[in-house]
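WARN  no MSA supplied for this record, continuing single-sequence
INFO  ligand: iron/sulfur cluster
INFO  echoing inputs
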Amino acid sequence: MKTRNGRAAPHLWDNSHWGHGDYLLPAVRTTCPYCGVGCGLLAGRRADGSVLVKGDHDHPANYGKLCSKGSALGETVGLEGRLLFPEIGGERASWDAAIDLIAARFSEAISTHGPDSVAFYVSGQLLTEDYYVANKLMKGFIGSANIDTNSRLCMASSVAGHRRAFGSDTVPGTYEDIDLADLVVVAGSNLAWCHPVTYQRLHAAKSARPHMRVVLIDPRATLTNHIADHHLAISPDGDLALFSGLLAYLAENDRVDHSYVMEHTEGFDDALAAARRLTMDDIVAQTGLAASEIEAFYRLFASTEKTVTIYSQGINQSVIGTDKVNAIINCHLATGRIGKPGAGPFSITGQPNAMGGREVGGLANLLACHMDLENPDHRDIANRFWTAPNLATKPGLKAVDLFRAIDNGRIKALWIMATNPVDSLPDGEVAEAALKRCPFVVVSDVVSENDTLRHAHVRLPALAWGEKEGTVTNSERRISRQRSFLPAPGEAKPDWWHICQVAQRMGFERDFDYGGPAAIYREYAAMTAFENDGRRDLDLGAHAEISDRAYDELEPFFWPHRLGLEDQEVRFFAKGGFFTANGRARFISVSAQMPERKDEAYPFTLNTGRLRDQWHTMTRTGKSPRLSAHMTEPHCEIHPQDAIQLAIANDTLVRIESAQGAVIARALLSDGQRLGDLFLSMHWTDQFASNGRVNQLVPAVTDAVSGQPASKNIAARIAPLNAAHHGFAVFAERPDMSAADYWATVLAEPGWRSEFAFAQEIEDLSAHARVMTASANDAELHVHRDPATGAQRMAFFDGERLLSAFLFSSTPVRVARAHVSAHLSKDYSDPRERERFLTEVFHDDQPDPGRMVCACYGVGENDIRSAIDAGSATVSAIGKALGAGSYCGTCLAEIQYIIDARSPAEAGVQDPFTN
Ligand code: SF4
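INFO  complex generated
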C-alpha cells in the first residue's frame, strides 16, 4: 500500500533488512527523544542517507509500538537549519575561543558579584550524563544552586508532592500497573495525544479486560474520552476539591486501610479533618460537576481495590498543583493502594528525560541523586563524594524567579541548554526582555534559529538525537540508553563535553576530565550508592563500576539497582518504607480553595496543552511535513454556544487576550469544550506563526511550593478578528510572510504552505504575493479574478517551475489544500500548462481529503467520512479500506471520533479537530 504521496507505507519496511542490503549501518537500539513514555526504537540509515525508525519489540516501555511523532523521527534528522559551528556575536568562532570566552565571563561574574550571579537553565531534553555534569559544576564547584530546568514547567508539582508525602521524589509504580488495574483514573491528561503509546496500552488492557473502568477527569472532552466510561468535565483546578472530598468519602464509607495508615503513615487525622470541612455543595461549586456524578466516581473509586490514578500537566500546572498532587496521593495512602500490582498514584512526565533531570538534581531546590540541598547530611555526602570546593548551601532560583532575577540585573551570565524559554516560559515578553538585558547569554542548541537563540552572545552547536550517547529515564523509573547512529555534523559536540570543557577552563580540570558518557554514568551511579545503605530511594550501585562495553550494551532497567540486590522489587511502598526521617508517609492537609480569579474584563478560562503531532516549540517536529499536516495553524477551541454569542463562526480568525498579551488563532467550534472555556495549543512560535506564542498569555504566577507556573487556568477574552483579505498559498521555498497581519506557515510535501490574512483592503495583492515568494522578482505572474465573488487566484512561475500559488478571498479560504502543494513538483515548461493552471487546475472544486488524520498513510478526515458512507463503519474497516490507523495507531481515537460523529455539520457543531 502507498501513501497519498506515493511513499511506501511504513508497515512495508521490512525488518529483515535491518543492518543488511541497502542499509548503510546496522540499526541501533535507542529511545525516542519526545515524551516520557520512553519508547524503545530501532534506528538506522539507508545507503541514500535517509533514516528508518521502527519500534523496538524488545523494549518494555512500548513493545514495538510508536506514535506518529516517534514514527516520523527519520524525517527530522536532516541538517537543514542545524547549528554546526560555534558562534560568538553571530560570527563563526573556534571551539577554543568560545569555551575560553564562556569560562572567562562566568569566572569574572563569580569573582565580581558572587556565585549567585550566574545561572544555567537546562532541559528535559538533555541526557542524564549531560545533566549530571551541569549540576555538579553549578552546585559543587561554582557554589550556587542557580540551575533550573524546563521540567519546572511540567512536573515540579509532582516532585514537590512526592517529596512532601514520601520524603523522596519516587514514582511508586510501573506501566504494568495500567495492565493490571480494574480502575484507571486519568486526571488532567490527554493521554491519547500527549502519551499515545501509554494510551494504546490502556486501550489494549481495557479491551483484554472489559470489566476495567476508565474515568477521565478533564475540563475538555479530549480524544482520551473515547476510552473513558465516565468523563468528569471538571472546572479548571476543581481537582483539589474532588480528591479532598474523596478522602472524606473513603473515611465515611469505611474504605480506609487502617492497618496501612497506622503502620506506615502519619497525619491522617489532620488531613481528614481538612477534607471534611468541604460539604458536597462546596465540592459541586468548586468542580462544576453534579453531585450525582461526583458520588458515582467516589463509589467506583471506593469499591475498586486495584486503582491507578494517572495524572499529568492538568494537575501540575496550577497555583495549587502541589496540593492537588497530595490530594490524590492522600487517597491512595488512605486505601493502602500504593506500590501494589495494579494500584498507585502515577505521575506521567512530559519530556523524555524529565525523570533523569530530577534524579541528578536538575531542579534548583534539589542537590543530586535525590538528595536534598537543605539537608546538612546530604550536603556533607555530596561534599565528600565530589570533594567539592564550593558546595551550594541553599536552593537556587526556580525558572520563573530566575528570569525575574535576569530581568532585574542580578544574573550577569546565563547558559541556556537545549530549551527555548522565550516560547515556553510564562509571560514570554518578559522572558525575552530579560534575555535582552542579560550581559552575557550562552545558548547550546542543535538548531541555528529559534526565538531564544537570537539573544545569545555565544551559540554552541550540540549533538542532536541520533548523534549523541547517554541514558534517559522514563515515567516509570526505567533507564534506557540513547545511542548514536549518525555522525556528528560540522563541529557539533555533546552537551556534557561543552560543560566539562568550560569547567576545566574555570580551573576544575581534574574533576571534569571524563573520557565519555560511560565515565560520567559510572561516577553518577557511584554517587547514588555512596553512603546510601537503603536510606535513599535512588541507588544504581550495581553500575558503579560498569565497563564501557557493558554501558554500551545496557538493557533497559528499573531503578533502584542496588549492588547485590539487582533483582529486588521494582515497586515502592506496598509495605511502607518511606524515605522520611521516621519512615512514614505524610498525609498532607490541603485546603480546598479555588484560585481567586475575578476579572470581568477576562470572562473566559483559557486552558493550554499539546497537539498530537507536534513537540514543544516545533524545532524538530516542524521538519516533518506529515506531522505538520495534522494542524497547520494555531487554533482556539470554543464551545459553539459561546461562539454564537460572540458571532464567531467556525474557521474564522479570533483574537485571544489575557492581561499579559494576545494571540491570533483559527476558531474551532467544539462541544468538547466547557461553556466559558477556551483551549489553545502551546507549540507555535515566531518561526511558524505571526501571533501564536501562547506563553504570551500565561501570567508568571506559580505554585507556592513547587514554583511551577499555572499554565492552565488563565483569565482570557476572545473576539472575532475581521480581515479584509484571507489567503492560502503554497510556496516552493520558505516564504517571507512579514507583510501579512496574520500568518502561519508549515512545511508541506513538497514546499511550504501558509494561511494568512490582511486586516485592511489592499488594492494590489500581487505586490504582496511577490514579496512573499522567494525569487519572484523576474517571475511570470498569472492572475485570475472571479467577478462574482471578488476572489483572486495568483501564481508565479520561473519558466518551468511553479514558485507559488495563492488564493485570496474576503472570507476564510475554501480549497482542497492537499492538492495544491503537489503542483510545486510538476513540470510547467509548457506555457499552455501555465495558462490553464489558475482556471482549470487551481480550483476549489477538487475532492478535498480534508485535514490529515492518519500521518502514516496520509489519510484525511474527508477520506474517512467517505469510507464511512461507503460502509466502513468501524475503525478496523477504515484501516482495511484506507490503511488509516493500521500502523502506529495514534489516530485510532480520532477515527473513532469521526465515526461516532458521522454528521457533525448537520448537528451544527464542528468536530474539534477540523480546520
Ligand atoms: Fe516517542 Fe510517541 Fe513513544 Fe512518546 S509515545 S516516547 S512521543 S514514540
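Residues 1-22, 904-915 have pLDDT under 50 and may be disordered.
INFO  checksum written, moving to next record
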